[in-house]
Design brief:
Largest interface: B-C, 46 and 46 residues
Order of helices and strands of chain B: EEEHEHEHHHEHEHEEHEHEEHEH
Largest sheet of chain C: 6 strands, mixed
Chains: A mainly alpha, B alpha/beta, C alpha/beta
Structural class of chain B: alpha/beta
Number of helices of chain B: 11
Oligomer: heterotrimer
Order of helices and strands of chain C: EEEHEEHEHHHEHEHEEHEHEEHEH
Distance between the termini of chain C: 31 Å
Strand content of chain C: 25-35%
Structural class of chain C: alpha/beta
Distance between the termini of chain B: 44 Å
Largest sheet of chain B: 6 strands, mixed
Strand order of the largest sheet of chain B: 5-6-7-3-8-9
Shape of chain C: globular
Radius of gyration of chain B: 24 Å
Strand order of the largest sheet of chain C: 6-7-8-3-9-10
């Protein structure tokens, strides 16, 4: 009879590549997130709005259904135009804010709470890879909520309307894609930066909302008191809204931004100011991350 | 007036809700260095917190040099406490840390300044006194905690794992300091896991396990009271089997175990004196080559093994 | 084994203007290397630099021949690190955490899971491996740190205060584990500790730092093999004076040792047996007999004194 003893074996096999190692982090994060029923349901529920939008598009193109509904005369009840796509993006982006506030705080703070980061960095794994890995969790989920349904809606409409319509309105597609990406990047960076600096998760989540609403309120106060428009620089939803307007419409503006991301006409700031303000916000977040994500703390 | 030179526990119990801290503990601790030994979770920190008055007993009475912990104004002047945990008020420098706590005793500015500088001197931290405590290394933080505990010149010192994080030189210095205080007639109560150090420095020992006091007193007298256990001696030699055979011819040897590498014998005997004389004879008669002889028994480590052993441990 | 495990080549590390490590030069080849030194000598800085958390300001170091400045990633895939402070993710179970760490070190995910379980059994935490790390006791957390350090099969382990806060049985178990790892031969260890006894039991070579310089570097194995002529005995049953004088008459040097014991240096040619003859004549019991070599404590204290001269 052979008796086997549990012992330590050295490892002689192959090692994985850097890319696969980076993907380990999102894989674990997704497994953890999936365990939360609330998050899974919330995520699935965020597809309701695009679904409704798709039904509207279908209804527009189906006279039979129109008759069924009994709205013969109101042919162009809902026009599939700039406002339609922008408000779709606006709704999904607001939901993305909620999701980021739920998910974001739990990404980095558990690693910092008990000093596990030194173990991450004692492996062939750099700080950049760590941040990229964590960001990709948010980037993937938020993409699935924002521009992917948006582009699908655009393609569906294009399929029903024809190639010509798609070519004339290609700006919608680029607007959806780039507009969503700007928003997603800002959200992810902000969520990770707050998660790295604020240990208590509910506080970090609350701060996410705070940065949007409180700062917006602050900006509005400045506008009111100083009778100027510069307060809008503090209002992230304004900044995003104005950038979106430019992406979707270029110089001939007809809209006032999207729902939740209002950029009212007549109160505008030069576009480059919006871009700069957003860029500054990104840099601040990156700086906050660089300060906190380290192998060891050094206090002089 | 023995009431004023001992610390007494009379049938003290402390529960945290349903969880047991310590149960029915009665002790009389004389001056000198007393070590508290026991696994994590055995009640050492509870005992220390009871002594300093940070928590109150659920049952029973405690008197520290005649004063009950119900009178903190009197008790806290007598007692200095150095906790196990590495926590500080944020933003203070070493000097400010000691000074601010000293002010609470009501002394004047100069007095506090003097005492702070003296304490820092003793801990070897004069150069680092004006740097924030958060910037200190672990050893320096430990030393500043000790300095803070002793700055008001207390009669009773309660130190929870005071040597944790100190390098060998600092340990030796701290131990010399404890020895000094013990010799001056103060009560120094130290809790430690490093048993060979406990052996070297303590006058008496209290062993705790799972909330009960398992043994207390001086090491040698504790050992001799564990009568059911015969003396254990380890002999390293080249022919343990032959030695064992000779030993078994005597009545007093109870057990002999050859060590795994075949070069040693662990034996238990009821009569140590006869054994040693016998060993001497065997060496001279049969030319046995002895590498070392050591009583495996007479220290805290072995008493710990007997009374607490591995099952008492928490891991 | 001629190739060195760790080679320090004029390694210098600065924090701003202050030089923490000053041009260290050494070649460490033992199975198990101890790192000692007073607080502030630069031990943690040395470990952090070898791990790649700090950049050296000049000079370099090599681990298994790889330069830490140019091949940092490769070096880190060969190393396992057990930090001094708590290091864990409270919400994860033990196995999941070690598996994550092993995958980040480059193991494919199926192998990582297998090895995570093996590592837990090896360190003695088999029964609690599914529990969340936040619920572990201090001893368990230390063992879990060791498990995460060995799971990916490194060639060199850095253990920083491995017995910190452990009670006596847990300390004995940890030391035993370290000794087992050392005796395997395929895994080198560097132990940094303040407890001289731990280092004495676990290490073959010892590197002592002081003020950023190397104060001493010695091989404990050689120390143990020499000094067979030094004895420490404890007697009972006579005037120590009589026994001592007889010993001196035989040519031994004697001295009073700690705790009432006697230190003897036997002259060449005198066997231990003679001691016993004298003891039998005088009806003295020799209750304790030890070959005493320069213990690590003596070496350390000597290093601290001479270190000042450098």
């Amino acid at each position: 009879m052979a008796v086997y003893k549990k012992t330590y074996r050295p490892y002689e096999g192959a090692l994985t590549s850097s890319w696969r190692r980076l993907l380990v982090i999102p894989r674990y994060a997704f497994e953890d997130l999936y365990r939360s029923k609330f998050l899974t349901i919330f995520f699935l529920a965020s597809f309701i709005q695009p679904l409704v939008a798709a039904i509207l598009i279908y209804v527009q193109h189906n006279a039979a259904v129109f008759n069924l509904v009994g709205a013969q005369g109101a042919n162009r009840l809902i026009s599939i135009n700039v406002t339609f796509f922008m408000s779709n993006l606006g709704w999904q982006s607001m939901l993305a804010l909620f999701l980021a506030s739920f998910i974001g705080p739990g990404q980095v703070s558990p690693d910092l709470a008990n000093n596990a980061l030194s173990l991450y960095l004692a492996r062939p794994f750099s700080r950049t890879e760590y941040v990229l890995g964590k960001m990709s969790v948010l980037l993937i989920l938020l993409s699935m909520m924002t521009w992917i349904p948006g582009l699908l809606l655009f393609s569906y409409q294009g399929y029903l309307e024809g190639w010509e319509w798609m070519k004339t309105n290609i700006r919608f597609a680029t607007g959806i894609f780039f507009g969503a990406w700007i928003w997603i990047l800002i959200l992810s960076l902000l969520a990770l930066a707050l998660s790295a600096w604020v240990k208590w998760k509910p506080a970090a989540g609350g701060l996410m909302f705070g940065v949007f609403f409180v700062a917006a309120g602050f900006g509005a106060t400045i506008n009111g008191v100083q009778r100027t428009n510069w307060g809008h620089l503090f209002n992230i939803s304004y900044l995003i809204g104005s950038v979106w307007v430019w992406l979707f419409e270029g110089s001939n503006k007809t809209t006032n931004g999207a729902v939740f991301f209002r950029a009212p006409q007549g109160e505008e700031l030069p576009l480059w100011c919006s871009w700069t303000a957003l860029a500054v916000l990104c840099l601040i977040c990156l700086y906050m991350l660089a300060r906190k994500i380290r192998g060891m703390e050094v206090v002089r | 007036m023995s009431g004023n030179t001992t610390i007494t526990f009379s049938n003290v119990s402390r529960f945290y809700g349903e969880v047991l801290g310590i149960n029915k503990v009665s002790l009389a601790i004389p001056p000198g260095i007393t070590s508290l030994v026991g696994p994590n979770g055995s009640g050492k920190t509870t005992l220390m917190n009871l002594l300093t008055g940070l928590i109150r007993p659920t049952q029973g009475e405690i008197r520290v040099l005649g004063i009950a912990p119900d009178h903190p104004e009197k008790l806290c002047r007598l007692v200095g406490y150095c906790a196990q945990f590495d926590a500080f008020p944020k933003g203070l420098t070493g000097y400010q840390f000691i000074y601010s706590f000293l002010r609470m005793y009501g002394w004047s500015n100069q007095e506090c300044e003097q005492r702070s500088m003296a304490a820092l001197q003793m801990a070897g931290l004069q150069d680092a006194a004006n740097r924030p405590v958060a910037a200190y290394s672990k050893g320096m933080r430990q030393r500043v905690k000790l300095a803070q505990a002793t700055a008001h010149d207390p009669q009773v010192l309660i130190l929870d794992e005071p040597l944790n994080g100190l390098d060998p030189l600092a340990r030796a210095e701290a131990i010399a300091l404890f020895r000094q205080w013990g010799d001056k007639g103060r009560h120094v109560i130290v809790s430690s896991h490093i048993l060979h150090e406990v052996d070297r420095i303590s006058d008496q020992v209290i062993l705790l396990s799972q909330g009960y006091v398992v043994a207390e007193g001086q090491i040698h007298s504790v050992r001799s009271e564990v009568k059911e256990q015969p003396m254990q001696i380890l002999v390293r030699c080249d022919r343990p089997g032959m030695l064992a055979a000779r030993l078994f011819q005597q009545d007093h040897v109870v057990e002999a175990k050859v060590s795994p590498d075949g070069k040693g014998l662990l034996l238990r005997t009821k009569d140590a004196d006869s054994f040693y004389l016998l060993l001497n004879k065997v060496i001279l008669d049969s030319g046995l080559e002895v590498e070392s002889v050591a009583p495996a028994d007479d220290d805290v480590n072995s008493v710990y093994q007997y009374l607490i052993g591995a099952e008492g441990a928490t891991v | 084994m001629d190739s060195s495990v760790i080679e320090l080549d004029d390694l210098e590390v600065r924090f701003g203007k202050r030089a923490i490590l000053k041009k260290l030069k050494a070649s460490l080849t033992g199975r198990s290397i101890g790192l000692l030194g007073p607080n502030g000598a630069g031990k943690s800085t040395l470990l952090n630099t070898l791990l790649g958390f700090h950049k050296p300001s000049s000079g370099t170091a090599r681990i298994f021949g790889r330069d830490i400045r140019t091949h940092a990633r490769e070096v880190r895939s060969l190393i396992g690190y057990m930090p001094e402070n708590d290091s864990f993710i409270a919400s994860m179970s033990g196995v999941r955490f070690v598996r994550l760490m092993a995958e980040l070190a480059g193991l494919p995910h199926e192998h990582a899971l297998e090895r995570a379980h093996e590592a837990f059994f090896y360190v003695g935490l088999g029964e609690v491996r599914y529990r969340a790390l936040g619920t572990y006791s201090l001893g368990m957390k230390q063992s879990a740190k060791l498990a995460q350090a060995i799971a990916h099969g490194p060639k060199l382990l850095f253990l920083d205060e491995p017995t910190n806060g452990l009670d006596p049985p847990a300390r004995a178990r940890m030391i035993q584990l370290i000794q087992e790892i050392r005796d395997r031969g395929d895994l080198h260890i560097m132990v940094s500790s303040h407890l001289l006894r731990d280092v004495e039991e676990c290490c073959d070579e010892v590197l002592i730092l002081k003020d950023g310089n190397i104060a001493a570097f010695c091989n404990l194995e050689e120390e143990r093999r020499s000094n067979r002529r030094f004895l420490e005995i404890e007697t009972h049953g006579s005037n120590n004076g009589d026994f001592l004088t007889s010993m001196e008459k035989l040519g031994c040097e004697t001295a009073q040792g700690a705790q009432g014991r006697i230190k003897l240096i036997l002259p060449d040619g005198l066997e231990v047996r003679r001691l016993y003859e004298v003891a039998a004549e005088q009806n003295v019991q020799i209750r304790r007999l030890n070959h005493k070599r320069d213990s690590l404590e003596d070496i350390f204290l000597k290093a601290m004194e001479t270190g000042d001269a450098k």
